[in-house]
Amino acid sequence: MATSTPIIKSTIIHQDQNDHIRLVIPLFLLKKLKLHPLTAGLYPLALGKSTSHNKLNIKQNNAHHHSLIYCQSGSGILDHKSKKREVKRGDLVICCPHQAFTFSTNTAVKSQKENSFYWINFTGKLADDFAERLLMKMDDGLAHVGLLANIVEDFDNLLALGTRGYTATNVIHGVHLLQQALSSLALQLRLTAFNQNSHFDIEAVESLMRNNIHQDLSLDTLAHYSQLSKFHFSKKFKELTDTSPIQHFINMKMQYACNELDNKNDSIKHIAESLGYADPYYFSRLFKKIVGMSPKQYRDSHFTEK
């Protein structure tokens, strides 16, 4: 893994006015981040925010880290993989290690709004995995995610690390903010890609499941409700939730059962029947398979904790 010196050289930042925030993680801290079990998976090497009508240029040749650029306002030109593309408000860029690219803010148009871009260089044992989750839903490292308030807040809080100081607590919190932001961006990319390619309404299906939590729902019923064949309905549902429709419905039922066991004194048989299970023993086996303990053990553990 590269040290801080080549990382700084591989990313060149030019800014005409003092409106560019840059935070470079010092070498002594990078060594700790690389080894600490709570930070070794993913951590920033350098990050910043540029807000200006003036030009910002980023050039990377052969870095050992991943690079992220997020456009809050304005626009820029990304030259990556022999393609020049415009990066606009709400766009996200991810470039992998050893991939040369240049990025320049667009100031050619007089009416151009103020450019505001976040950039982060990150690495770690899990950096490839985090990046892969993003890149699988991107077009050669570029995608539109929209202007997300939670991402802007996470990045601003991460930049504030420079003023809060490099204490262990502050740094670990900052690292987890970065992990949270990348996970949230991956989820947003997945939802965006799914919505663009399908009229499938996952919220409506889940609402149907909740409204019928006390009875059985067949795959035929769910597919018919979505006006899809069983095959296409199941495929689309699993693409979005990573589980089958029926298993998702069962998980929902068990979550409801947990709430009933926590907050009511109804018998396990009554709870089973209220969820459409005539056989309480079958319900108990299903509950244990999903939750990890029997309904009675779950209820008893609740009172033990009190």
From TrEMBL:
<dbReference type="Pfam" id="PF12833">
    <property type="entry name" value="HTH_18"/>
</dbReference>
<keyword id="KW-0238">DNA-binding</keyword>
<dbReference type="InterPro" id="IPR020449">
    <property type="entry name" value="Tscrpt_reg_AraC-type_HTH"/>
</dbReference>
<keyword id="KW-0010">Activator</keyword>
<dbReference type="InterPro" id="IPR018060">
    <property type="entry name" value="HTH_AraC"/>
</dbReference>
<keyword id="KW-0804">Transcription</keyword>
<dbReference type="InterPro" id="IPR003313">
    <property type="entry name" value="AraC-bd"/>
</dbReference>
<keyword id="KW-0805">Transcription regulation</keyword>
<dbReference type="Pfam" id="PF02311">
    <property type="entry name" value="AraC_binding"/>
</dbReference>
<dbReference type="InterPro" id="IPR009057">
    <property type="entry name" value="Homeodomain-like_sf"/>
</dbReference>
<feature type="domain" description="HTH araC/xylS-type">
    <location>
        <begin position="203"/>
        <end position="301"/>
    </location>
</feature>
<protein>
    <submittedName>
        <fullName>AraC family transcriptional regulator</fullName>
    </submittedName>
</protein>
<dbReference type="InterPro" id="IPR037923">
    <property type="entry name" value="HTH-like"/>
</dbReference>
